[in-house]
Design brief:
Two copies of one chain form a homodimer.
Chain A: E1 2-3, H1 6-18, E2 27-28, H2 37-46, E3 53-57, H3 63-76, E4 79-83, H4 88-97, H5 105-115, E5 118-120, H6 123-135, E6 144-148, H7 151-163, H8 173-180, E7 193-194, H9 204-215, E8 221-224, H10 230-239, H11 242-274, E9 278-281, H12 290-297, E10 302-303, H13 306-325
Parallel strand pairs in A: 1-2, 1-3, 3-4, 4-5, 6-7, 6-8, 8-9, 9-10
Chain lengths: 328, 328
Amino acid sequence: MIAQSATIVTLTTLMASSQGIGFNKYVSSGNEADLHMEDFLEYYADDPETKVVAAYIEGVRKGRRFIDASREVTKNKPFVVLKGGKTEAGAAAASSHTGALSGADMIFDAMCVQTGIMRVSDHLEMIDLIKAFLLLPRPMGKKVGIVSAQGGMGVLMADACVKYGLEIPKLTEGSINELNTFLPYFWSHRNPIDVTAGFMGDLSALTKSLEVLLRQEDIHSVVCLPQVWSPLFSTISAQISDEMQDLFKSISVEMMEWMEETIINDFIKLKNKYGKPVIAIGTFTQSGSKSNRLLEENGIPVYETPDQVARVMSKMVEYAEYLRGKDI
Amino acid sequence: MIAQSATIVTLTTLMASSQGIGFNKYVSSGNEADLHMEDFLEYYADDPETKVVAAYIEGVRKGRRFIDASREVTKNKPFVVLKGGKTEAGAAAASSHTGALSGADMIFDAMCVQTGIMRVSDHLEMIDLIKAFLLLPRPMGKKVGIVSAQGGMGVLMADACVKYGLEIPKLTEGSINELNTFLPYFWSHRNPIDVTAGFMGDLSALTKSLEVLLRQEDIHSVVCLPQVWSPLFSTISAQISDEMQDLFKSISVEMMEWMEETIINDFIKLKNKYGKPVIAIGTFTQSGSKSNRLLEENGIPVYETPDQVARVMSKMVEYAEYLRGKDI
């Protein structure tokens, strides 16, 4: 990572590392009296230890060189940029911070499209995106399958996908017929698949539904929603009376963890079998949990909100399309 | 809170309570075979124990009654809505979840403008907004002052304000002259005020700058960025070697906590003196800290990103303008 701000590079790298994402090198380039953004970019483009390049940029001094250096980076690895000074007020602030001239935001945006740079709106989104690029295979298209045992979150996930330019393809007749064989009759009968609370009677309903989605050809990635509940249960546990706590822990929390582990291990097997991106939505992921770790260590990133997932997926699709346009 | 989804009401209320925000009543209304959203709204409008009303809505059955009930609510208290089924894909999903017809999103949006409802895009934004309404006085306008010791975050904060329709007014000559008397000569000389790292030599520089902003008449609320660093230091501390840890803790963490407490107590006094909304940006706020608690217990909400702050402020301004239009 390179940043024209010491605060932002410090925050981003520390918060990322608390989520288990390591930066092997970072630079706070300040107001760049000597070495510039472009110098560091050229270095990172060739650095075999760097898998994703991230930057906080207020202004670029040599446009041509920046474009060339960015193209060198994006040929081989994703390049994520947080741009400060997008608006007039921000640009004025930047001019007294690093002395950089931010230039018209439209021009910077056009430059990003041409060079395959992905822009984010804050350091948390930057971390979300870096995690996705580190863990997920490249999506082959923008069509997303969704499976959940919670209708409301499925609805919000579908909304978020469309908002960020992704598509929710219809289930094929074959998929529907197969789902009918094991889901309760009142399942949603469409994508998003809502297996409904009925799945509590048959834990494999979720896994089997995931496999149907992964097998459908025009579905390029799958978001699954239900399996990371134990951090939530631990939170509840901390809020109930002492006498009840032991009972609650031994029954609910432990049962939940066992259930999660079973489901997650099946998810991982399926992900490996089909090679498509699989993303999970968990709750209270900030507090960490065994389940989250198990998922992320095995290539299934976990996020907290549908918006985060859709933003991340849309950027991954954007980069994949950029590379395809380049015939790489 | 009322929700047409058990998951969303559970998540929202639990996550809010882990941030110290209590819900005194909540309802999961499901697919509303009997009592409807409108019934609960009418109840909440008159309930003296409810200060803010929140809802997750997939569909409304009786438009006219919903509008009347919403107006009753917003006369006396903010009403925050997360709408599921905004897009065609989401609406289709909603129809198989609660059976609600979501209707055109544009119509729902127009209804929100007419009734003073504030829409949010996920449950985390809902919690952010509820916290703001519980802690902050009503802003008298959309002009925001920003003070920070970190240029980069000040730049991003200015960008975020403009993105959400807020304004960053110029400093008056009087304000600039006063700031010149105690800030290092290389301060930003504009709003956002960047007191620069020079403030480490004079802790009161930050507080005095805040007071200049609060005193300037056309500044309606102030965002301050620098003072909640101890959770970050604790995070660093957990990552360094055992031998260094004790030293680091006793020197850096404790010094930081003492410094923060001094600054925060001055901030609280100023906030009480001027009665304008004051919001802080901290880091690692999820992990909680003494400083965050001290701020929030005294009416200064803490958020993690400039985007969160600007979104929350813009919604508060929106509601204040709605009430002024009503001459309430």
